[in-house]
Amino acid sequence: MLLNHTGWGFPTFTDEELITRLSKLTGDSSSAPMRFFSLRNPDQNTRAQIRIVRFTSRDRDRRAGAGFVLNMDTGILSEVRAAPQHTAA
Predict the structure, then answer these.
(1) Does 86 reside within a domain?
(2) What percent of the chain clears pLDDT 70, i.e. is strictly above it?
(3) pTM of the entire predicted model
């Protein structure tokens, strides 16, 4: 089960924004090439995570990995469906 959420932490900034803030706060830009894997769209991020789980699944079970997003404002948990996989004929 994959669970993401809205509104707090990583959904509120981009990697570039965080790197800029860290550089200004510390005076050190050495984190510039670092990835923090921030996300703006929790649904899109959940779909990407589902694809990773399915691709790396030992038996390539295309049903593996259920994804959900918790809306921190409403408390509603919504299932995120992965985009259908296209197979070659």
Answers:
(1) no
(2) 72
(3) 0.60
